From TrEMBL:
GO molecular function: phosphorelay sensor kinase activity
Subcellular location: Cell membrane
SMART domains (UniProt xref): HAMP (SM00304)
Protein source organism: Paenibacillus endophyticus
Name recorded for this polypeptide: Two-component system sensor histidine kinase YesM
Pfam families listed in its UniProt record: HAMP, His_kinase
EC assignment: 2.7.13.3
Residues passing through the membrane, by range: 12-36, 287-306
Length: 582
């Protein structure tokens, strides 16, 4: 095995490239990536911490406000005048009724004015069919509002109830009998505009926003119109996540999402901030970023130049030399003055060419001559039993005086021996080879017409003009007669057929002989596969090797058990697409 000298490591191309890459590229990339990621991470974490603290404080303030409103609401439930109106309204005279209604309106107005979060306060008194509100005064009993607020409050158990796209607080006063409807319901409607204003105040960063979610009440409130598409995306895919901070992509833009929850109110407040806003403080690093880009480009140019000079160009020269060698040029020695890996490769490549030229002269040409000699041997081989049988047939025809058949037979016999003994070009048209094989079967029919039948299919026109070596089909047929069909007690059958495939043509010879066992077929296949075997250079082995030498890997003879129960021999001819001259 060839070894590179140890002292040549100081000239190693790989060491120089790796060292240059580490010195020029890696520190810059690592420094830039680290600075950017560190700054971005710190900025986003700081913003998230501030936002979460602000939202938690907002929810605490909102909870205290709601608790105060609930206190006012329950004070109303205990108000003596309100209870008298609900119970003994029919016993009052008109003056007393007016006095108590004025008192109740004044009380509701006072409560409404005590908090900016109250849009209106209602008292639904079922017993007198009246609804009283700070905004609309005394009017007819709002049965629909009454039933909705009562039903939702009983079913959800939430402090806050959604009605008409706003949040409400409700409290009911029941009579003494179980199962009766409430005597009256005190309902406080929260001011959605005020809630929106408070949400807008949370958006301290440019293009940021927030929205309020009451999942149990089925209520959402956006701080501005631009929030709607972000709110829809959040509700449709991310509201189930437990993380307080996350990233969300909406219409191709990334947003930082922060969420705070209030278990007391059953509310969640969510804020969003465009990722570009988080990165804005990093603009001060623009100078360093451009410097980083410029340095990286310079490093890439330097690295590309040296890679081309030290690797690509020498490698391209080596590849081109290999391609020229594949084309048959063996006088393409490479000159290289550098003491690196390519100098070592070029030196070995030059030595390989010199040795290859010697091997071609000593080995390859000898094998070609041997293959031609094998073909000549097969051509000159006239089997005695075929010659004897031919003379026997002539003798029989002469005795019977059948001069017509005798003339036909002698013509066929003459054509047969002319084809196998002629010298000249080694390749013939496939149509001529098949004509010779068919003539051989016709000769055999005169001898075995009663015991052996032959089905010889027509050669497809597309295969007529294929150039093939001589004597590749007839010897296969002759082998079938000699080793199988002649010895059969019952009627023998020989079938010659053709198949066309995209990059392969098949000539198939099969018989119905049963004398050949599977083990014998396996042995023949093994011997055909061993192309280095120097024995049996006639017959099937001769044909197989000549076909492989002519058409390349994948061509040759392929044996198997025929469906007729005899031997099936496939002559496979591999072709290049668009090339009929195999």
């Amino acid at each position: 095995m060839l070894k590179i000298p140890v002292n040549s490591m100081r000239h190693a191309l790989f060491i120089r490239l790796v060292f240059m890459y580490l010195v020029v590229i890696l520190p810059i990339i690592l420094l830039g990536v680290y600075l950017y990621n560190w700054s971005y991470k710190n900025a986003s974490e700081e913003i998230s911490r501030n936002t979460l603290a602000q939202m938690s404080s907002y929810l605490e303030d909102l909870n205290r406000e709601v608790e105060w409103l609930e206190i006012q609401q329950f004070d109303m439930l205990q108000d003596a005048e309100l209870n008298k109106i609900a119970v003994i309204w029919e016993l009052m005279d008109n003056a007393e009724k007016k006095e108590r209604m004025d008192y109740l309106l004044h009380r509701l107005t006072s409560i409404k004015n005590s908090s900016a979060y109250i849009n209106d306060i209602y008292v639904h008194i079922r017993s007198i069919d009246k609804t009283i509100s700070a905004g609309n005064g005394v009017h007819d009993f709002e049965r629909e509002r009454y039933n909705h607020i009562r039903t939702v409050s009983e079913q959800s158990g939430s402090r806050l109830v959604e009605q008409n796209d706003s949040l409400h607080l409700s409290a009911s006063k029941f009579g003494g009998r179980k199962g009766d409807e409430p005597l009256f319901i005190v309902q406080i409607e929260l001011n959605s505009e005020k809630l929106k204003e408070s949400l807008v105040q949370l958006s301290v960063y440019p293009k940021s926003g927030s929205f309020l979610i009451a999942e149990m009440a089925g209520f959402t409130l956006s701080g501005n119109i631009q929030t709607e598409n972000i709110l829809d995306k959040y509700l449709n895919g991310m509201n189930h996540l437990k993380e307080n901070s996350m990233l969300m992509k909406v219409e191709g833009r990334n947003y930082h999402i922060d969420k705070a929850d209030s278990a007391q109110l059953g509310l969640s407040i969510v804020t969003y901030l465009p990722e570009a806003t988080v990165k804005r403080p990093l603009n001060r690093f623009n100078y360093w970023a451009w410097l980083f880009v410029g340095t990286s480009l310079l490093a890439i140019i330097v690295y590309s130049f040296y890679t081309y000079k030290l690797v690509h160009r020498p490698l391209l020269l080596l590849v081109q030399s290999f391609r020229r060698m594949e084309g048959g040029s063996l006088d393409i020695l490479i000159e290289h003055g550098q003491k690196d890996e390519f100098g070592y490769l070029y030196d070995r490549f030059n030595q390989m060419l010199i040795k290859l030229q010697s091997l071609i002269d000593q080995d390859f040409k000898q094998k070609l001559m041997m293959q031609k000699a094998e073909l000549k041997q097969l051509q000159s081989q006239i089997k005695p039993h075929f010659l004897y049988n031919s003379f026997f047939i002539l003798n029989s025809l002469a005795k019977t005086g059948d001069t017509e058949r005798m003339e036909i037979f002698t013509n066929m016999l003459g054509e047969y021996f002319r084809f196998i003994t002629r010298n000249g070009e080694e390749n013939v048209w496939l149509s001529e080879e098949i004509k010779h094989a068919r003539m051989y079967t016709e000769i055999q029919k005169l001898r075995f017409s009663r015991r052996i039948s032959v089905q010889f299919d027509d050669l497809p026109k597309e295969m007529d003009r294929i150039r093939v070596p001589r004597l590749v089909v007839q010897p296969i047929i002759e082998n079938a007669y000699e080793h199988s069909l002649e010895n059969m007690a019952e009627e023998g059958f020989l079938h010659v057929s053709f198949e066309q495939q995209p990059l392969e043509w098949l000539i198939i010879v099969e018989d119905n002989g049963s004398s050949l066992e599977d083990a014998a077929i396996d042995s023949l296949i093994l011997r055909l596969g061993n192309t280095d075997d120097e024995h049996e250079m006639t017959g099937m082995m001769n044909i197989h090797r000549r076909i492989m030498l002519t058409y390349g890997e994948g061509s040759g003879l392929f044996l198997s058990r025929s469906k007729l129960n005899g031997l099936r021999v496939e002559i496979r001819i591999k072709i290049k697409e668009g090339d009929l001259d195999a």
